[in-house]
Amino acid sequence: MSSVSRKTGERLRVIVLGYIVRCPLGGMAWHHLQYVLGLHQLGHDVWFVEDSDDVPWSCYDPTRDVTDAEPAYGLAFAKSAFNRVGLGDRWAYYNAHTSRWLGPAAGRILGECRSADLVLNVSGANPLRPWLMTPPVRVYIDTDPAFTQIRNLTDPARQERTARHTVFFSFGEGIAAGTSSVPDDGVRWQPTRQPVVLDAWTVRPGPPGGRFTTVMQWDSYPSRELGGRRFGMKSASFAEYLDLPRRVGPILELAVGGATAPRRELREHGWHVRPWLPPSRDPWTYQRYIRRSKGEFSVAKHAYVTSRSGWFSERSANYLASGRPVVVQDTGFSDVLPTGTGLLAFTSPDEAVAAIEAATARYEGHCRAARELAMEHFAAGKVLNTLLETAMSSGSRRAERED
């Protein structure tokens, strides 16, 4: 009997593929750690695997501010992060440039991969090597809707890489609902969202006199065009909100990265601007930055907004879990998440002003509502159980069709 047909609730061996060694930053680490830690808390036999990929510029080292093939900084970062969450022996890194496995599970990870029931490729950031093709269920989790689909439509190598998976989920919840205009790449994308391990996020009273903050990249990568449509970055969303501090006061702060960020102009318009790296130095500096914030204010990538993808940020989910109200640009997530208290969506500068004023006027109530919303809609147990049940069920149906 194939492991695909295991009963719901049975302990599974799960391989989570992610992006921690290559991008050793606090928010990125939590994005992936919460999959591993959440599955572990559910009782599954979970392992984290990362691959250097075959490009020589795969690893970022913030101490040198370079991206190259050297993983030393990222390996030390991953070791510290996994040790601190109690999963110190549960990860391995494959360096394709040297054909070597590194990390505490290096000596056994091939066997764990080949005997696994399920692979979760978070953000599709890892290639599926031969040892990852044995598990019968191979899940692609799209966290970058519109751009993922455009890559599949325009890059044959990327399309082939995607096709090696068997089940597909997207943070773009509007795709499955039929309410988005994300380009159709022919893949059956099912909805999912960021799992949050709630007991990892301490809830303390928020600072009423603090600032609404966010951690962001001005331009993460180049904008794309397809079929006469432009799909842009946060920089393309920001222009109409540039004057916001003049309307709500000096309470908005950006920890912003990217060489193209107009830091001087932002400061001239009243934004508090700080380097993005100190809050992102590790998972714990990232948590402290969120706790010291009054809440979050952020725009979204232009592509997410104009396509009404339904995408919701893993960062915003962490603000909610910390009991901090979130004021963010609506990407269509208001179709599936309750807004108005704790989570406030806006589609224009006037709506953004009203949302900030509302969150400030009843601040303690919005803080309580934020945590409650995280518990109801982002709790790792709920999100991951749904994902696993859907993935295993889809895997069973596919196996039956192939038989």
Please outline the major beta sheet. 8 strands, mixed
Mean pLDDT, rounded to whole units?
95
* Rg, Cα atoms, Å: 21 Å
**Silhouette:** globular
What class do helices, strands and sheet pairing give?
Answer: alpha/beta
CATH topology-level fold name of the largest domain? Rossmann fold
Figure out the total of helices. Answer: 16
The number of domains: 2
Number of strands: 18
Strand arrangement, major sheet: 6-5-2-1-7-8-9-10
Proportion in β-strands:
15-25%
N-to-C span? 12 Å
CATH superfamily of the largest domain: Glycogen Phosphorylase B
Low-confidence stretches: 1-6
CATH architecture of the largest domain: 3-Layer(aba) Sandwich
CATH class of the largest domain: Alpha Beta
* Helix content bin: 25-40%
